[in-house]
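FW: tagging you since you asked about this chain on Friday. Here's the raw sequence from the shared folder, copied in full. Didn't touch anything.
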Amino acid sequence: MEDTHDRRHSVRPPIGEATNVNEVVERNIRALLLRRRSADAEKSLDERIADAVTRFTGSMRFVYIHLVLFLGWIVINLGWIPFIPPWDESFVVLAMLASVEAIFLSTFVLISQNRMAALEAQRSDLDLQISLLSEHEITRLITLVTAIAAKMEIAESKHPELLELAKDVVPEAVLETMEETSAQVEDELKDGR
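HL: got it, structure written out here
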């Protein structure tokens, strides 16, 4: 437990060191960029190729190249250029090439999307963990401030909502409540039709 706490706070400057919001933002940006570079360096050759193909096929250069190639193919095979004989008058070869290309391109896009989805799942898990840690820290602060207010005999320290706020949130209970409420709303919407 101690090791996790140390790692979580190791990026932060020591207590008492002057920092401002800009320094914190810059530190966070640097940490994210270093993490992104590290993830890029760990990509396999297959992933690098898939990303490069996806990046190129998602560019306007790709569109312009295909526009020129397809337009040229069509113009030549319609017989509009007299000194070049048509070789695909029915455009079957063009359709076949376009179909094969579409199969491969969609596969490359799916490979990249799957990897991005995995990264997004990691980011989502990180967001959840940070939110849970923040909630825990805020709960502890509420407990501390309430105790200070009670010691100073401030009337607001007896507010009933503070007792509820001072409890840790149980993620499983929140998920169950969300599911139950969602089911109830779905039932109400079905009944209302």
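FW: Confidence is low (pLDDT under 50) at residues 1-10.
HL: agreed, and Helices lie at 2-9, 21-41, 45-57, 60-77, 92-151, 160-165, 171-192.
FW: great, closing this out.
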